[in-house]
Design brief:
Elements: H1 2-32, E1 38-42, H2 49-65, E2 69-73, H3 80-87, E3 95-100, H4 102-109, E4 121-130, E5 132-137, H5 145-154, E6 160-163, H6 169-181, E7 186-189, H7 193-202, E8 207-211, H8 212-220, E9 224-229, E10 256-263, H9 268-282, H10 285-293, E11 297-298, H11 303-323
Parallel strand pairs: 1-2, 1-3, 6-7, 6-8
Antiparallel strand pairs: 3-10, 4-10, 4-11, 5-8, 5-9
């Protein structure tokens, strides 16, 4: 009996020793992190919004952390290829993901998605948000969203709205607007903002849900009217334009976003260290100005706040895409 007791105590002491060694090793690694080059994967082509954000953030992170930060573009499959690579990487803080809110949308639109945005990543920080807006051709007889709704109801079945793609955020907002406003605008999908904007300017479509940043100059010149923007706050790019919520349209407060994540299992201390540096960088006025020049309102958050956002948006888009039968082409 005594021998059995000694064996049990021995096993317990061994387990405690192993556990303490693991904790000590993790603490040591965290205390010296980083000791080598950090790679930020961007799951989109070079030259686009996520790439520009990653390069701006990477440059400042390199200075703050004292190690090189390289940007690695891995486009394809609506961002899924690059995201999967990071999800499968070692959770040591040397492979990160700078991506857009498509991360939480794509799994609902892609059969057999190679990743789960909640399970497979360790959110580090929200980086920034973007606004979409409802825009109409200046010749359309309406100056406000309420007037446009009245005009559309008086011409039921005759009007349409453009989006920058089937299954996109602009498609989703168009269908929500149809629902909450009691309209039946016909969806006309385009491959990107540019062709949709051209047809809006030419009057071939009466309305469009597009990026505020992309359309702002045409609003300022008077060729296009902005009726409302998405999100819970007004866009600083068009501060005179109300949010949908302000004028009584519910369920239009979602925003596109950019964020930084690591693989699931990333040590909390490393996660928090990177997050703190990102938040400090996003407080810098020149960084905020550069982001705004790209149509992005600077963010910055704790890992937990961003994790809550990722989970909320993943569930929200799943519900909305299913409700409005939104699918990719």
């Amino acid at each position: 009996m005594r021998t059995s007791l000694f064996r049990g105590v021995g096993r317990l002491l061994l387990m405690m020793a192993v556990g303490m060694c693991t904790i000590a090793t993790s603490a040591a690694q965290t205390g010296t992190y980083p000791t080598k080059t950090i790679r930020i994967v961007v799951p989109y082509l070079a030259g686009g919004g996520p790439d520009a954000v990653a390069r701006l953030l990477g440059e400042r992170l390199s200075k703050a952390l004292g190690q090189p930060v390289i940007i690695d573009n891995k486009p394809g499959a609506a961002g899924s290829i690059g995201a999967q690579q990071v999800a499968q990487a070692a959770p040591d803080g040397y492979t990160l993901l700078l991506t857009a809110s498509g991360l939480v949308q794509a799994p609902h639109l892609t059969p057999n998605s190679p990743y789960d945005p909640v399970r497979d990543f360790a959110p580090i920080s929200h980086v920034g948000g973007t606004h979409l807006g409802l825009f109409i051709n200046a010749k359309t007889p309406a100056n406000t969203a309420a007037e446009f709704v009245a005009y559309a109801k008086a011409n039921t079945g005759k009007l349409n709205y453009a989006s920058y793609g089937t299954g996109s955020l602009s498609n989703m907002f168009g269908e929500i607007f149809n629902d909450v406003a009691g309209l039946n605008l016909t969806h006309v999908p385009y491959k990107g903002d540019s062709p949709a904007l051209v047809d809006l300017l030419e009057g071939r479509v009466e309305a469009a849900f597009l990026s505020v940043f992309f359309v702002r100059s045409y609003v300022e010149s008077g060729r296009i009217r902005a009726l409302a923007v998405t999100g819970s706050t007004r866009s600083p790019l068009l501060p005179q334009v109300p949010t949908f919520g302000e004028i009584g349209f519910r369920s239009m407060d979602a925003q596109g976003w950019f964020g930084l994540l690591g693989p699931a299992g990333l040590p909390a201390a490393i996660q928090q260290k990177i997050s703190a540096e990102v938040v400090n960088i996003l407080k810098q006025e020149d960084v905020r100005s550069k982001l705004l020049s790209m149509g992005i309102v600077a963010g910055g958050s704790t890992p937990q706040v961003f994790a809550d956002m990722v989970k909320h948006d993943f569930e929200m888009y799943g519900t909305l895409f299913k409700r409005y039968k939104i699918q990719t082409q």
